[in-house]
Recover the amino acids of this structure.
């Protein structure tokens, strides 16, 4: 559905794979039905084994075909981009206005709560 389960805002000097460990740490023990996690090629490598041992999850890398030239919509990966688009429609989230990672995380969660409430009770 593209709804956010956990948020971690970290400095830009942290590698994406290390940041993924922070996010997965927040998920551990909270979503017992979670079994499969999709990620792009930037998360390949040791993170796959770490995810299996840490949370008993399967980290599946959604790869782009080598034969395709130009833009291609990839299954499952477009869900992340669509969610970023939903978040970006809120003025406060259109740019990075926050001064601390905690307030940035809070604004992302508030945005998603607002989005979910509007889906539950439209109009």
């Amino acid at each position: 559905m593209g709804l956010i389960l956990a948020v971690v805002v970290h400095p830009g000097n942290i590698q994406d794979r290390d940041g993924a460990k922070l996010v997965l740490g927040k998920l551990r023990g909270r979503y017992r039905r979670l079994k499969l996690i999709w990620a792009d090629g930037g998360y390949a490598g040791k993170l796959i084994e770490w995810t299996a041992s840490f949370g008993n999850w399967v980290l599946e890398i959604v790869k782009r075909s080598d034969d395709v030239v130009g833009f291609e919509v990839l299954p499952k990966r477009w869900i992340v981009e669509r969610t970023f688009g939903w978040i970006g429609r809120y003025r406060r989230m259109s740019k990075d206005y926050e001064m601390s990672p905690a307030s940035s995380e809070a604004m992302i969660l508030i945005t998603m709560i607002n989005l979910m409430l509007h889906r539950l009770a439209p109009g």
In short: Residues 101-120 form the longest helix (20 residues). The chain has one domain: 16-120.
